[in-house]
Write a structure and sequence with these properties.
Two copies of one chain form a homodimer. Chain A is of the alpha/beta class and 304 residues long. The first copy, chain A, has a single domain, classed as Ribokinase (UDP-N-acetylmuramoyl-L-alanine:D-glutamate ligase, 3-Layer(aba) Sandwich), CATH 3.40.1190.20. Helices cover 36% and strands 25% of the residues of chain A. Chain A is built from ten helices and 13 strands. In chain A, the strands form two sheets. A nine-stranded mixed sheet of chain A has the order 5-4-1-8-9-10-11-12-13, sandwiched between helices. A four-stranded mixed sheet of chain A has the order 3-2-6-7. The longest helix of chain A is centred in the last third of the chain and has 18 residues. Chain A starts with a strand and ends in a 7-residue tail after the last helix.
Chain lengths: 304, 304
């Protein structure tokens, strides 16, 4: 029942209307694994440079996150410098220093190759395909992607989309990939490639789940303040996959709850910079927001 | 139990990526009353010019919409010319010809002054206050507004917001009025003025209802294609108020269902230009989408 994530480890420098941080812990695999680890054991496959602070490694290890697939390469760690203005749905990238990530080819340790759950975070779809060739017969593979790969590696991305069970993407990217304004039509075309489900991430508006012939909408949790949206999507994916691995079933019902749990985890992530809030979540808080989500979405009409 | 709407009657010329129409029937009071009339009898207070086509009057009358408060003034009817690009959430106004609407002062016929339900569509808040002085003791008054009045008639708008029971506004306008990015905080401040509920319209993302200490989120119906978003907000309001008048209660539960019915009606409106689709809605279709909304929002988790 093991869960493996392959993605980036980064040092992020971020400015938002609420403040800023320099070289804070970040990266898709980092956010994902800390989030998923709340629900289920998780193994991280990624790369850091020689300059990656030992305290972050110690933190991940203290959580019980499997680090056998974490490579320390010579050179500097991947860095991202970004800024958000008042539209917190939109990051402005000021700098991307790939560093050791530029030549990263994920190698799964032999003991990970029989894993049941795989999350391919947003990396080059050619690398996502490399990972797929290394796993034997996972129960569930999900992937995330982004506009850059839609534009520059469309064929590899299509191959990857066709090979996985669940696709997670932003709403704008779903529309961009298919080339239509109609989300319904875009979802149908992506599902036609093979995945059994498409999760559309909609930032402050929540997330939706499209399966053949059905759909589900979850709002985002109404946070009092959003300080830094970085990592929201990756920690959403962590909550989503972690919940599914824990539930051990892939029914429509389980996927719907997984979307809600993804939304819950993302709602904590954005309340502070880096993984600051995510690190502190308790089970009581998750349970509290789960009950809130039920209350926020319930309606019961008398017939009219 | 009568329901009165005060708002605009217009001839709209609209272009969207799906096509265009010239001088088609439009206006907030028009969309509202045709929508609300699906649920409850409704009386329209507004003004048209000498050039307003008789066929539109005949259509409204054929629906049983009360027209005792419809004034025909000398001059031309209000006209709006607008365009939507691929972001259908954002109208670009090319021309506004107020014409007879410029000097409109709504006069409620004596028999409307005892009405129970009043909807003040998006007009000058000073006119909204004039209407409020003409009604005796309505059970429920709701209003809509827009960015223009927030900027140019802020004090009158604040007075109007303080005098009504329910406020309906777009998300951006809610934030703009309060001057905060936090929707939660903005809702709290608007409710502190006096209204018992705030309905936040979020376009393709649905709508949310804020009441003191609680909130509710409804998605938008996933339409296969949106041809023209004009009138979505006003027909939402019509479905919302029409449902409440029919239900005859103002509980949290009734308001939640009213938000869902508003969303259903808006989802039909946007499927075609002008009131073309709205005119054809059947009860079976409303009931069908209501069941869809229940299916699209239901989740039932096993405890984790």
């Amino acid at each position: 029942m093991s869960l493996v994530v392959v993605g980036s480890m980064a040092l992020d420098s971020i400015e938002t209307p609420s403040g800023k941080v320099e070289e804070a812990l970040g990266g898709s695999a980092t956010y994902f694994s800390v989030a998923a680890n709340l629900y289920h054991e998780v193994n991280l496959v990624g790369v850091v440079g020689e300059d990656f602070p030992q305290e972050h490694i110690d933190f991940l290890r203290s959580r019980g996150i499997g680090l056998a697939g974490l490579e320390r390469a010579s050179g500097r760690t991947f860095r991202w410098v970004g800024r958000y203005a008042y539209d917190l749905n939109m990051a402005e990238t000021l700098q991307t220093q790939l560093n050791v990530f530029a030549t990263f080819h994920p190698q799964l340790p032999p003991e990970y190759r029989n894993c049941d759950y795989v999350f391919l975070a947003n990396i080059d779809p050619e690398l996502q395909l490399e990972v797929l060739r290394q796993v034997r017969s996972p129960k569930l593979v999900a992937l995330d992607s982004m506009n850059y790969w839609i534009r520059h590696k469309r064929d590899a991305l299509t191959e990857a989309l066709s090979a996985v069970d669940i696709v997670l993407m932003n709403q704008a990217e779903v529309r961009q990939y298919v080339g239509t304004l109609s989300l319904v039509r875009a979802a149908r075309e992506i599902l036609a490639l093979g995945p059994q489900a498409l999760v559309v991430k909609r930032g402050e508006y929540g997330a939706s789940l499209f399966t053949p012939g059905d759909c589900f909408f979850s709002p985002a949790y109404p946070c009092e303040e959003v300080r830094d949206p970085t990592g929201a999507g990756d920690s959403f994916a962590g909550g989503f996959m972690g919940y599914l691995a824990r539930a051990g079933e892939l029914t429509e019902g389980a996927m719907r709850c997984a979307v809600v749990h993804g939304s819950i985890i993302a709602s904590f992530t954005v309340e502070d910079f880096s993984l600051n809030r995510l690190k502190e979540i308790t089970w009581e808080e998750i349970e509290g927001r789960y009950q809130d989500f039920r209350r926020f979405t319930r309606f019961e009409g008398k017939d009219v």
